[in-house]
Hints:
By secondary structure, chain A is an alpha+beta fold. Chain A contains ten helices and 15 strands. In chain A, strand 3 and strand 4 form a beta hairpin.
Amino acid sequence: MKLLRTLSAAAALLAALSLTAFAAPKSIKVATDATWPPMEMVDTNKQIVGYDIDFLKAVAKEAGVAVEIKNTAWDGIFAGLDSGQYDAIISSVTITKERQAKYDFTEPYTSIGQILVVPKTNKTAKVIADLKGKKVGAQIGTTGAMEIKKVAGVELKTYDEIGLAFEDMAAGRIFGVVCDEPVAAHFALQKKEYKDKFKIVGKSFTKEAYGMVVKKGNKDLVALLNKGIKAVKAKKLDAKIHTKWVK
Amino acid sequence: MPKNPASHAPIEVGDGAAIPNKNDAGLFTAWRIAFFGAIFVSLYLAFAKPDPYYEIFKFVPDGVLVTFKVTLGAILLATCIGLITGLGRISDNRFINGAASLYVEVIRGIPLLVQIFYIYYALGRFVKIPDMLSAIIAMAVCYGAYMGEVFRAGIQSIPKGQMEAALSLGMSRRQAMRQVILPQAFKVVLPPIGNEFIALLKDSSLVSILAVSDLLRRGREYASETFSYFETYTVIALIYLVMTLFFSKLIGIMEERLNAGK
Lengths: 247, 262
């Protein structure tokens, strides 16, 4: 009897919740791969922090929705969106044609480029093509990996996390890493184990824009997030977040 | 005395297992259904839906080769480590025995994935080991501990009388071990070693966490670019299945050959 009563109470609560769902602020689940500092990472307090996270929170506030952030491995982050484990992705996702064919993007919220990091001992390399016959690393399924793949004669090695690629370069197994410029700056210029070993060469060689990703056809959510992004940009909150995280 | 005289019928003693497995005979064995079924499904998918299935099959063969190399290298190394460990575990020398036991206890208590990470990244800080070799070493170090236990059990399963008889014939302990005990033990350990072999083949997928382009990583690379996760993992599963079934058959044949010479 008691179980029945609890169940019916729960059912009534659920019904009440779904009735008020239109009025009350919605809650959305957003996935991120928190291994991409300073854009998204886990800090020493086990909190997911970073540029994207602050940006997402600002957008959610402007759009009037609650967000729940879920830390997910990059390899398969899109598959999780497909299977409905979360509603959106904010994880430094570059808007590309291939991805747009499969998913819907919000409008771009920041722009970056790919950049090459090599050991300081390498005095000659300026672009990826200078590393012909050598192994160059990137995180699996990122635009960085795709850029390396485009260069003939360079062997691409893919890693589950970008930090592992830098670790492998420190061990001397690969001779270059390609990733987003802020990430490269974090690993090559700020991390004390790597500061003396690595350097960034040249300027970023692609023009990319990050967007939030939702399932194809989820127009309502895109509209909602776009509304938030517009408001954040209008209030110049994005510039504040940028100076906080990207040096 | 039992009252029923029929229970006095002579009991025939034959060769082979005490309880024969009747399900292993006939045209439709489980093995055949699984092996040819997997091949049939693969061919069907590749022809019926070439995009993406044929594309995936075209993308992964070098990964199969890497998986094959890692497995074979690791199994050879692990067998050597296992044999040494197994002998060490039954040694009377306290130091050798202790070292072998410590190795088994420590390695068995740490997940393979952690070991692979550790050997690759921690060792990589001090010595430059190529990635493939360090993957093989990590797999072999882990499986060597399990194999050590298999060998120990196998050697200990040989009756004590065998050693005593060999010694009384004037053989040295070492000779007796090599010529009398180990050949018999080998027959006993072959099935469990076959098991380890197949487990190792599947666990070799864990080296994909290192940037070793094995079968699983090739699949993940394909999937992460094309977003066809379901199709890719179907293909990966089918290929692993065919590989493990192929090896299990190979081990089965070896077992039969050895038993035929009884």
